[in-house]
Predict the 3D structure of the following.
Amino acid sequence: MEPMIASSRQNLPDHQRIVITGIGLTAPNGNDWKDFRDSLLNGTSGVSDYEIRYVGETLAGVCDFEVNRYQSRKDARRGTRAGSVGIYSANEAVQHSGLEWENTDKSRVGIYLGVTEHGNVETENEIYELKGFDYDTQFWSHHHNPRTVANNPAGEVALNMGITGPHYTIGAACAAGNAGLIQGSQMLRLDECDIALAGGVSESIHTFGIFASFKSQGALASHDDPAKASRPFDMDRNGIVVAEGGCIYVLERLEDAKRRGANIYGELIGYAMNTDATDFVLPNPERQAECMRLALERAGLAAEQIDIVSTHATGTASGDVQECVALRNVFGGSESTYVNNAKSFIGHTMGAAGALELAGNIAAFEDGVCHPTINVDDLDPECELPGLVLNQPREIGKPKHVLNNSFGMLGINSVVIIERI
């Protein structure tokens, strides 16, 4: 089918087309792209029992990657969990890309990592330790400032990998993983770098504050079986499972990827960000729909040309319904578009969510399977969509386009569209 909408990308030269050539990640149910994908197809959850200071017993998506594969013990102690997640994911991405890293000009590499929040873990820990010294600040760690500055996760990656190009984090709440990809692609198009390490990271499970806040809000999930706690779209959903994780992509211009004979896993052909401007927490489906439409317009696609929609749905009573309203607004009753959710497997990885969830779906370009949303035993009628894939994977041929939704507090919305080329 030919595009039905005039595209801003038509006739773009190869040096303005941005492609994915490497994927590195750690998720609660997998520490590389293949294992993560296998878990999504096999129904393997990464949610487990978890206990954290003051909150006590709860549930979380916990990663179990090899911290010291790319980082010394000393640097790991000096740094942060988010930094370690970023270092692991970035090194895995570069290895996966086949770049000759030793011969790469590090001044032409940029790092753009989305985060929901950063510094809460370190501040909570320092105050807790200081309590044992009657709050005498001479015992406050001299590592605190570099641990808590907003650019920390990206900065730790830069230090670890010897990257001297631009690095920064993008604070975009739970839309941040997509925002990292968007920023990386823009910087490549502006010729600010030749390689972008872009995506998102999260250390959220290590701060008791996020659990306590969701609990007081009535939005923290609970279930006797941890694997069934995260259940977007289900009538019995009762909140968010907090998770940690990271996913970083190697982005390059198409001409550079072709020149070195790189494997190309997809092209970023459309994206959009906008703001609800209506509430601190509650989403606005009208603005979410507008964000999806803008991304489609920029990609030059009609809604029915999207094969897979990766939803943001977190398992909250209102949030899931609002996104489904937005999806019906954009996609109508289209049965050619399949809809799924990865949070049902791993929980909500916050700043990493958009990037991780996208990785789980662009693998369908190769294997032709749409992974399901699990734990949907009783579908909420208000969440019913024609193409919703529930509990079992579905073979869908060779998908061409994936649309990835990622939304966050303060009404920030982000959408990314990837094309198989």
